[in-house]
Amino acid sequence: MDIRTESDIPVAESYGPGDVGAAPEPAGTFPFTRGVHHEMYRSRPWRMRQYAGYGTATETVERWQTLLREGQNGISCAFDLATQLGLDSDDPEATPEVGRLGVAVDTLADMEGLFAALPLDKIAATFNINAPSAIIYALFLATARQQGADLTRVSGTLSNDPLVEFIARGLWRVPPRAALRLFADTFESSLENTPNFYPINIRGCLFYEAGASDIQEMAFVLSCAKEYLRTLVARGMDVNVVGRRFSFMMFADHNLLEQAAKFRAARRMWAHICRDEFGATDPSAMKFRVTAPVGSYNFKIQQPELNIVRGAYGALAAVLGGCQAMLVAGYDEAYDIPTEHAALLALRTQQVLAEESGVTKAVDPLGGSYYVEALTDEMESRAAALIAEIDGLGGIVPAIEQGFPQRAIADTAFQTEQSIESGTKRVVGVNCYVMDEDRDNPVPLHQVDDTARTRQLAALAEHRRTRDPGPLAGGLAALETAARGEANLIEPVIRAAEAGATLGEMMDLLVAEFGEYRESFSA
Q1: Which of 446, 496, 506, 453 lies closest to 472 in space, CA to CA?
Q2: How far apart are CA 288 and CA 311, in angstroms?
Q3: Are the C-beta atoms of residues 328 and 311 closer than 8 Å to each other?
Q4: Beta strand 47-48 with 125-128: parallel, antiparallel or unpaired?
Q5: Residue 16 per-residue DSSP state
Q6: pTM exceeds cut of 0.90
Q7: What CA–CA distances, in Å, run from 133 to 24, 159, 288, 445, 490?
Q8: What is the pLDDT of residues 429-468, one digit of tens each?
Q9: What DSSP assignment string belongs to 339-384?
Q10: Angle at 424 between CA 418 and CA 428, to 5 degrees
Q11: Which of 487, 415, 446, 383 is nearest to 59 (CA)?
């Protein structure tokens, strides 16, 4: 019988000692197959964050505070689409989306409002944004300074992964090579100002959500990571210093064993890349620190309560894989942003796993399984072959410019959809065990408050009316001059924002200087 994994790896009837190599090393030692920490969850549980944000700063802070009261130990900020594109809320292309899928941030005052009651040196904050991430980091840094926070204690993560947008999402503004400058400026400033903050979180999950296979997710995320590391080293930075600040995000679906093997293989591959290709000598600079988002992409609108089950199995897969942080989607996110009830249930899913399941008591509990070890080896081998193919094209940037990863993901997504339509891939509630629509339970949905958009637009209009045009013009002129040279752009962005410049005005200035990216190939 020809049985294969989701990654099209043949699965034997059973596995034994002849299917695996040497026993894996202890956790916390190179190449970290079994985990990046010696004791893993026995001494340090994963960080529980729920991806949250909508409307204005006021609504978003209310949701954050609810989740923090209920045991969440970090916040993960969702920005609306306009902010993710670096557009102001009053831009004609942005206005319909203001505050719908995340919080709107137009000004420094908006960022200050998000953290008015949350001291930035006492809570870990994660920002999920790429194209304008340099500006968002600058607003974050300015807010921390305004709070008088101890910047050496500020922790959290900024996605700052622009290459993923060219491959999997399309929320780009400037071309890839200019985007790498903004990435590097942000990283450099973070090392200087917020040394315990992770200024990059490379988003393999976005490849997966676009339809990539597990092998493609591994290969593309590691290829992007190599390009980021190469960019920083070319600036004269020490790989042993910058490597410690790299972090990753890999999707964890409910395909338990393959997901666990994926995380184990990716850790081993990144450790070898850092040491063997970049000459890292500090083990801390070789660790693949990973956050696992669970759900959303593979949650279904049919029989939505099944998404609670999918979320629980996905969370288990993430823990079996050894993640350092996790986000579980609300079961209703196949419809809209989660209700407070669904978000709390997703947080409780993680808490039950941590407190009651017993899965955290042993490090890498699947280690030594003949099947999981063999699967880890095979996934590593296949991902390495794809990385070599990308290297043969000159690296991930030339590959993007040729449309290689984009076409590969599109092909995989098409094949997956065909397999679901044909029934080859079985999805409960979708193509098997289907229930009549009238037997489905109605799902209470989050009610969008349209007044949030009105209030955001009114606040932005008032900001434009009351700011002093003299300092504003000076701040934007200084930013333009810096963009034309090679100076780090973060401090000029802060000065422009403090002079009243909006996110959209600063992003437009950078686009005017660097150009706007246009795809030149057909996917």
Answers
A1: 496
A2: 23
A3: yes
A4: unpaired
A5: -
A6: yes
A7: 38, 8, 22, 31, 10
A8: 999 999 876 555 577 887 777 788 899 999 999 999 999 9
A9: PHHHHHHHHHHHHHHHHHS-TTSSSSTTTT-HHHHHHHHHHHHHHH
A10: 100
A11: 446
